[in-house]
Design brief:
By secondary structure, the chain is mainly α. The protein contains 16 helices and no strands. It has one domain: Growth Hormone, Chain: A, CATH 1.20.1250.20.
Length: 433
């Protein structure tokens, strides 16, 4: 494991820089638009284009990778994302920024495919559980780290955009300097969403709701925080604490999912999150501490809906269907991520800042009504359930092979060939005559 971690160090550094820069940009844009006087509805309409671009990238960006290779594709996507970031301050118009967000989403999906397929290629049947866990923790912490940067510089100025672009550009360096052989791109399996719904309606609906809630938070959380009067440092804390809470709550919820029926655990998580969201809508304005605490619980539990959905679905799949089912769940989450910012923005326009939490409570209420008839119908006995693994959809785009629940990896092609020796020997200088 240590050898693999060292071999993947360049990938990990590139991933950290990339995720920090992108997470910082996402929060920065919502805050900048809010401070410039745009309504919540307009902000949600602009930022939802990132999700549209990301979904498109998850479907088509792999073609670029298979055509030019991993490192060149990474350079292309990172260059596009850096340019897109730098273009934002030049003109603040709705159509222009919406187009930039779509381009950023597509580029980010391509970057994640490159990094994650490389991680997957390093997996063996013995180490992929550990790699999967390390990858998720790195992604969570990097996302939280991006929120800390909100306090750096004036959001209405050029400097924060420069910082985000610098981070994304620097992500090019470690991976571009690597002389390891890149892994092959293999076509992913597909399963129609309608077909998956007939087998696992809870998984599809849970993933959809998870996409609505989490993407709403990333897009409109800074807008909400600005509208309720939080200072710049407090907005940074507001975002970072909720993300850290999602990482922390994943482990106890996962343990409960291994001990009890997962449909019921999802029902309990959704119910508690809905109640806490209503409390936040009513009492959050009374105290910053109350706001931080309720948001942490609300977002932390909402973030567990997607991994529970994955676990519920995989319990019902044959081993050879897990990859295709995961792809379909990502599509369901992607649909939710497109709906979430629009829904939250509508409620915030109508009800003010508290509409952010009320919209979340209503979405969770719909999930609860869907789950209640199923509470007495466990689809799989607890003893037959697969082991639970936490998973964030943004960090699992190309990790189907790394998922420990997937079928055993064919190790006839040694993964070390993509980690150990350089692709070619260093060139030697020819002596001058």
């Amino acid at each position: 494991m240590r050898k693999i971690a060292l071999s993947l160090s360049s990938l990990i550094v590139s991933l950290v820089l990339l995720v920090i820069g992108n997470a910082f940009l996402t929060s920065l844009l919502g805050l900048r638009l809010s401070m410039s006087g745009f309504s919540s509805g307009v902000i949600g309409g602009i930022l939802v284009f990132y999700s549209l671009g990301f979904v498109a990238g998850s479907l088509y960006a792999s073609r670029v990778v298979s055509t030019v290779g991993h490192i060149r594709a990474f350079a292309v996507f990172a260059a596009v994302l850096s340019v897109v970031i730098m273009l934002h301050p030049l003109a603040m118009t709705v159509i222009f920024w919406a187009g930039l967000r779509a381009m950023a989403g597509f580029a980010m999906a391509g970057l994640m495919i490159v990094v994650e397929s490389w991680f997957s290629r390093a997996a063996t049947n013995k180490n992929r559980g550990s790699l999967f866990a390390v990858y998720q923790v790195v992604f969570f912490l990097s996302t939280a780290g991006g929120q800390v940067l909100i306090r750096v510089g004036d959001p209405t100025g050029f400097a924060p955009f420069s910082i985000a672009a610098i981070l994304v550009t620097l992500a090019l360096v470690p991976l571009s300097m690597s002389r390891r052989e890149s892994p092959p791109i293999e076509p992913s399996e597909r399963m129609p969403l309608r077909q998956l719904y007939t087998v696992s309606p809870v998984g599809v609906v849970g993933a959809l709701v998870g996409g609505i809630l989490i993407t709403s938070f990333y897009s409109l959380g800074p807008v909400f925080a600005n509208e309720v009067g939080l200072e710049q440092n407090q907005i940074s804390n507001f975002m970072a604490i909720a993300i850290i809470a999602a990482m922390i709550l994943a482990w106890p919820v996962g343990r409960l999912c291994d001990l009890f029926d997962r449909n019921r655990i999802m029902l309990v998580a959704a119910t508690v999150a809905a109640v806490v969201a209503l409390v936040a809508a009513l009492l959050a304005s009374t105290s910053t501490l109350v706001l931080l605490a309720t948001t942490a619980v609300f977002i932390g539990l909402s973030a567990t809906l997607y991994p529970i959905s994955v676990a519920v679905t995989n319990d019902l799949m044959e081993s050879h269907q897990i990859t295709a089912a995961s792809t379909a769940l990502l599509l369901s989450y992607g649909v939710g991520s497109c709906l979430g910012p629009l829904l939250s923005a509508f409620f915030m326009d109508v009800m003010g800042p508290r509409g952010f939490f009320i919209s979340g409570a209503l979405v969770l209420g719909g999930l609860i009504l869907f789950l209640v008839p199923l509470r007495q119908q466990p689809t799989v006995s607890v003893t037959d359930q697969e082991q639970f693994y936490t998973a964030t959809p943004e960090a699992i785009l190309g990790l189907a092979e790394l998922d420990p629940r997937a079928p055993d990896i064919d190790e006839s092609d040694d993964p070390d060939s993509y980690l150990g020796e350089p692709e070619e020997a260093p060139l030697k200088a020819e002596p001058h005559m």
